[in-house]
Queue: 2 jobs
Job 1
Amino acid sequence: MITRMACWGAALFTCVAWSLLGPFAATAQETAKVWTVPEVGALPDNEFGRLVRRGRDLITATYAHIGPEVPAVAHRYAGNNLACGNCHLEAGTKKFGLALFGLYAEYPRYNARSGEEITIAGRINGCMMRSMNGQALPLDAPQMQAIVAYIKFLSTGVPPGQELPGLGAGKMPELTRAAEPARGEPVYARACATCHGSDGAGVRRSIPSVDLGYVMPPLWGRDSFNDGAGMARLITAANFVHFNMPHGTDYLNPQLTAEEAWDVAAFMISQPRSHKAGLEHDYPDLLQKPVDTPYGPYAEGFSEQQHKYGPFAPIRAALSKLRANAPARTGAPR
Ligand code: HEC
Ligand code: HEC
């Protein structure tokens, strides 16, 4: 897969080479362009600018606009008081903090979970029904249009087919053993509980009439993501935690060892949370089911327990054997 980083490297090299060519070379200003996340604040105060700003507000303060406690009952699409931005950090602009930049042109794309091609709105609704434990936003709802406009804006100037570095939650080495909630518990007590609470319920803001969200979002329990969410899968959760938590950490400077991150994520996903009905219909092509999906059915004979906590290498090996005998498909999940 070509990463944008490689392209930047090439572009900068070309630029330097050209500048040695003298007067015929383009000016440094023209060539040494580096893509950065576009600045919402710089948008004009026109209809488009307002739509994008509204989309950003919906990401950073989801609970205040479409949360389960907003006064307008018809707007209660989300089932919890999280914000999209609690996971899509820095309003979707943080590398390996489940970034939302540069992906607009990747959609519509095949989605293994639903077994069909989905649009960006369809993907947003995946998070609405799982991470936000709520209902899908209608495609023509103004809130949906604003979120899509914001995500599209975050892809300004990114040509189709180019993947920026920093999407997803990162990828640290896996353990050869199963991750263990019991080993993660003391890590949680030491490194997470001060913010997220020893009961995982987080800390709400003190002025609920003004702002319904959390200062520290809950990690489990009824106001958190449900058991069908990406964050309920160990590989996603462990990498997210490794590269982003404790809050303020980034991928250049992880605070936990990989082992601690695997075990503390195992502890987090072992805790009770809302159940999403119908999970058995996810990944209609079982050969495409991510190895860390914590619910069956599965194409191979491994237990739900091993899918939930690993080790994943044996599952992966069994799956590639099965895949070798099955017709190829494209669009594996990131
Ligand atoms: C509890 C954490 C969490 C919350 C809250 C959340 N998401 Fe997500 N989101 C994820 C994870 C994890 C993934 C990647 C899932 C995977 O690996 O399959 C994701 C993926 C996405 C993607 C696809 C990204 C890509 O790389 O293609 C979009 C778009 C998205 N979310 C939008 C939203 C929006 C909009 C909201 C709020 C309405 C939201 N998410 C709330 C965790 C969350
Ligand atoms: C200094 C406070 C702090 C510490 C310590 C901390 N977090 Fe967080 N965490 C946050 C905040 C704040 C957010 C929301 C980020 C945002 O909205 O920008 C968050 C978000 C999260 C999320 C995604 C949102 C959700 O509710 O699911 C997960 C998962 C998470 N933290 C796990 C952990 C784990 C595991 C640890 C311990 C290794 C940890 N955090 C340590 C403050 C903290």
Job 2
Amino acid sequence: MAKKAYTKSELKKFEKNILEKIGEINESIEGVRSTTQPNNSVFIEERSEDFNEGTEAHEVEKNFLLMSRESDYILNLNKALQRIKDGNYGICEVYQKDAEKCECPDSPLITKERLMEVPNATKGVFCKEKKKLNLL
Ligand SMILES: [Zn+2]
């Protein structure tokens, strides 16, 4: 019979992977902050008289977007951590709603490879694609 959920030790591994990802993102957000803020502002002011203003504004905007996207990701990673606690992490969402509709190869589990790569995944690739095509 197919496995219905990941074991405790497997979940521990996923948890570690997620925490590492969160750490990486926090670092990269810090990095963005330190390049957009204080140090650079003098530089911006000095040159804002001419052509550079637009470019700098664009940079800041881009970094801002990046930051909000990253924090969305962190939010989703935190939700994933919660699912680990709840014990339903790695189980395809489609399966949880309607077991019959889930056609993931490892149903109901999302493959380990996918979870390591996309730790916030809530569906298996197969179900995700079907959802995209409105087949679910
Ligand atoms: Zn599925």
